[in-house]
């Protein structure tokens, strides 16, 4: 599984995150980032083109060396000041209350202990900072949710630790965030994978 997760999954992510649905969602969320930005699970840097002039610096946390190298190359072409802040969202070497905006796009599904990662996000985010997010997770349609729960384990095993039955809104609320904006609903794609949670959260 080490070779599969370290070398195959990053290339799969690189392909999947090019999907039209992902492309169409990014500008509206990422474009409102400002100040010093921390992106959790940056992947190959598909969000980078949408950071506007109000962003002074971008820090990245990304476990895959293959993907972060792609992100660094993309940032260089775009003239973006990108720094690698670590590889583990559950234990970040970042000062308390030092980040203006945290960006999380389709990441909480695959973090082994999302509660720890959310606690770290809350720690590093300024009291007036914002968390911008798009996540997929458990649908609010019982029949779909039933199948998500039933198939989550085999899916997680073959999809690099991705879970299809987490509730990002519950995780964020329990972790100390409140929602300034929250939208939920099906996006394009298979029902089991396309129920989205999108919005803006602040420290409570």
Alpha-beta content class? alpha/beta
**Average of the residue pLDDT scores:** 91
Strand order within the widest beta sheet? 3-2-1-4-5-7-6
Q: CATH architecture, please?
A: 3-Layer(aba) Sandwich
Main pleated-sheet profile? 7 strands, mixed
Shape: globular
Radius of gyration: 16 Å
The total tally of domains equals 1
Structure write-up:
The protein has helices spanning 2-16, 20-30, 65-78, 114-124, 142-158, 168-174, and strands spanning 35-40, 55-61, 82-86, 99-105, 125-136, 177-186, 195-203. The mean pLDDT is 91. The chain is α/β, with parallel strands linked by helices. It is built from 6 helices and 7 strands; from the N terminus they run ααββαββαβααββ. The protein starts with a helix and ends with a strand. The protein has a single domain (2-203), classed as Rossmann fold, CATH 3.40.50. The chain is globular, with a radius of gyration of 16 Å. Strands 3-2-1-4-5-7-6 form a 7-stranded mixed beta sheet.
């Amino acid at each position: 599984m080490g070779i599969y997760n370290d070398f195959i999954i990053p290339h799969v992510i690189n392909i999947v995150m090019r999907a039209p649905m992902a492309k169409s969602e990014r500008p509206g969320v990422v474009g409102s980032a400002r100040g010093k930005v921390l992106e959790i699970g940056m992947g190959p840097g598909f969000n980078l083109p949408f950071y506007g002039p109000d962003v002074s610096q971008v820090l990245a946390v990304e476990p895959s060396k293959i993907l972060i190298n792609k992100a660094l190359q993309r940032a260089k072409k775009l003239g973006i000041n990108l720094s690698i802040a670590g590889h583990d969202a559950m234990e970040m070497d970042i000062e308390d209350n030092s980040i203006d905006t945290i960006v999380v796009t389709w990441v909480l599904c695959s973090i082994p202990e999302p509660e720890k990662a959310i606690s770290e996000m809350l720690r590093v985010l300024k009291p007036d900072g914002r968390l911008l997010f798009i996540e997929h997770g458990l649908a609010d349609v019982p029949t779909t949710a039933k199948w998500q729960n039933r198939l989550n384990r085999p899916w997680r095993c073959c999809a690099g630790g991705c879970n299809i039955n987490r509730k990002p809104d519950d995780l964020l609320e329990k972790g100390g965030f409140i929602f300034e904006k929250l939208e939920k609903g099906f996006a394009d794609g298979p029902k089991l994978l396309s129920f989205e949670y999108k919005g803006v959260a602040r420290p409570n």
